[in-house]
Amino acid sequence: MPPAPEPNQRLPFIARILMPREIRANATMAVALGALEGGVVGVIVKTQFDGHADPTWVNLAVAIVAGAPAFANMASLWISGLAEGRDKTAWVSALMLLTSLFLMVMALAPGNALGLVLITVAMVLARLSWAGVITLRAAIWRANFPRHVRARVTGRITVIYSLTIAVTAALIGLAMSWWADAWRLLFPIAGLLGVLGAWGYLRTRIRAGNRLRKSELAQRSNRQGGQLRASLHILGTDRWYRRYMLTMFAFGSGNLMVIALLVIILNEQFGFDRFEQVLITTTLPLLSLAIFTPVWARRLDATHILDYRARQAWNFVLALGLFTAAAISGLSWLFWIGALAMGAAFAGGKLGWNLGHNDFASDDQSTLYMGIHVTLTGIRGLVAPLAGVAVYQVLEGMDAGLGRWVLLFPFALTLGGAITFVILARLRHKEIKELHHA
């Protein structure tokens, strides 16, 4: 296991050159991602298709679109295999283009049961394309930015992304409060800006790109079996990464469950309007994320991911605790505080999610390790929201209003994961001490 990095306060020259290019290339794409936020599309599905399809199916569709940003990652391992040894810049650009085109297709969904299916499928396909971008872009960032500043560089990019997405989501929510079908006009506009972002990313360059491609091709030629077999081998032999992934699975399931449940609870149980729903599920968390990302970035640059998660995970426990208390007590103002706390938690969570695998992987296995991580994220992103909504439906079927208690489910998963991260961090330090004394 690689040692924890040494902190460094100054960005290297190459990072200062490449980072602005990365930000410029991605800025317009963030507008498209603002429209593709699970909270935004979830609100659209819930408010636009209620009354046009069976309420249970509408709630399940909310679970699917809210979970789509996560469960689309199941395709990442396959995409990373296709792009292995090839020009990752061209692949990222093409996948950005597909993301934008599927966003524009969503605006064509008619206001009936068929439209519910169309918008749900288009959302899933858009997020599948973006999942490939996330996986391949992680390898580009690893090549272009040194380890001791990578989190800060990623954090600065994330801040720009988050602010742009937050503003886009808020504008869509505000527009829908005036005109319910405003998203049908705004989605194509956001998609066109995404197309510009895809074109701009073609100018991104990868340091020592030829050497990286040759290394990946050599590793693939020496590998027995495909990406899946290689991934299973890593999980079987890398004990610490396996423990990290198992804990992330339980911990992340709670986090991925909560957005879909919030969309439904805010609408059915509390009667929040469209704009307020978008603010709580998307805009406020993203604004808070932008504020707290630099704080978490310096922490991650200076420590191992397990030590980092042992502290950062408790922010999610706080956020879900506030949401749970709000739902059960009926104190609606707690949802607003919970949204800000969730953003602070996601600020650290996104950094750890994008970069944590690097503390276990070698350079030529970075994409594969990331592929494992995002694929497992995809599995829980599919299962967790559907499970949460299913529990909500059962509770509501037992007694109207009982569904508010469903948030205890994700809260318990998140709490268990946070406790396990603390245990793992202590075990790792104990092992390091024993090795030093041996």
Structure described in brief:
This protein has 438 residues and is mostly helical. The chain has one domain (13-437): MFS general substrate transporter like domains (Growth Hormone, Chain: A), CATH 1.20.1250.20.
Explain the overall architecture.
With 438 residues, the protein is mostly helical. The protein has a single domain, classed as Growth Hormone, Chain: A, CATH 1.20.1250.20. It is 81% helix and 0% strand. The protein contains 16 helices and no strands. The chain has helices at 13-35, 38-49, 55-71, 76-83, 88-106, 113-144, 147-178, 183-201, 209-222, 227-237, 239-268, 274-301, 305-329, 333-355, 366-398, 408-437. The chain is globular and about 65 Å long. The protein starts with 12 loop residues before the first helix and ends with a helix. The model is unreliable at 1-9 (pLDDT under 50).
Q: How many DSSP helices? A: 16
Give the SSE order as H and E letters. HHHHHHHHHHHHHHHH
CATH superfamily: MFS general substrate transporter like domains
Shape verdict: globular
CATH architecture: Up-down Bundle
Report the oligomer: single chain
CATH uppermost class: Mainly Alpha
Mean pLDDT: 85
Rounded radius of gyration (Å): 21 Å
What is the strand tally?
0
| Largest β-sheet summary | none
Strand content: under 5%
Structural class based on helices, strands and sheet pairing: mainly alpha
Whole-number count of domains: 1
Helical content stands at: over 70%
| CA distance, first residue to last residue | 17 Å
